[in-house]
Amino acid sequence: MSKSTHDTVMLNNGVQMPWLGLGVWKTKEGQEVENAVKAAIKAGYRSIDTAAVYGNEVGVGKAIKDSGIAREDLFITTKVWNADQGYDSTLAAFEESRQKLGIDYVDLYLIHWPVKEKYKETWKALEKLYRDGLVRAIGVSNFQVHHLEDILADCTVKPMVNQVEFHPYLTQKELLAFCKEKQIQLEAWSPLMQGAVVNDETIQTLAKKYQKTPAQIVLRWDLQHGVVTIPKSIKEHRIIENADIFDFELAPEDMDQIDQLNKNHRFGPDPDNFDF
Known about the structure:
Layout: E1 8-10, E2 16-18, E3 22-23, H1 31-42, E4 47-49, H2 57-66, E5 75-80, H3 87-101, E6 106-111, H4 119-131, E7 135-141, H5 145-152, E8 161-165, H6 173-181, E9 185-189, H7 201-210, H8 214-224, E10 228-229, H9 236-242, H10 252-259
Parallel strand pairs: 3-4, 4-5, 5-6, 6-7, 7-8, 8-9, 9-10
Antiparallel strand pairs: 1-2
InterPro entries: AKR, AKR5G, Aldo/ket_reductase_CS, NAD(P)_OxRdtase_dom_sf, NADP_OxRdtase_dom
Binding site for substrate: 112
Family: Belongs to the aldo/keto reductase family.
């Protein structure tokens, strides 16, 4: 089991991806995102997750450049937005993201949402970027089992990652099992239920038992399920705290207790009923 923020999981193409990363959704471009990324890197994080639609790729790029950490030791993820999906438009969107980030290659490029009639063409563009060596790994975000089956039916490169909403109120058992079977790494966005995790009584009780914070309990639960996680924070003490999850292990019965909190409750949009 993972021992530090530098620990990685091997994706289905042999690329190593850190188990823990910093998400920068809703983090403002400029000083706010630069400070968050620098604090994360200083705290030992090596994975940063952004997206074109977040509007903060320039700040992420500046922070990684200023961090003093070698580019090859970092793992940078970005995503193609819905309006840019399609073959040529995805290639153009990727180039724009790459320029904003100021990097030669992206470690992981994802399709942000499964836009009907478009995501298969978009996937072909990702396959080209992968073959051309501009991205080290490609994947999807917010894809349900049926979307993945659709891609797998005729892709030439299998998705390496599926980043979805995943937390104790939305445990996505079927999707997790499917991804494990197909060797697609599941990654959790909104792992802390947009902050609501601190109010759950079961989680609070476990936090007392392990002398950890509610956030640390849930992030540890992710890890023990073999799910990569990218909690978002702009506060340095929280960024450090969120990484302090490698020195304890949840007992199987406590893992089960958390699993049983599932309500199939989404804080974010439903990929099958999303206004693309």
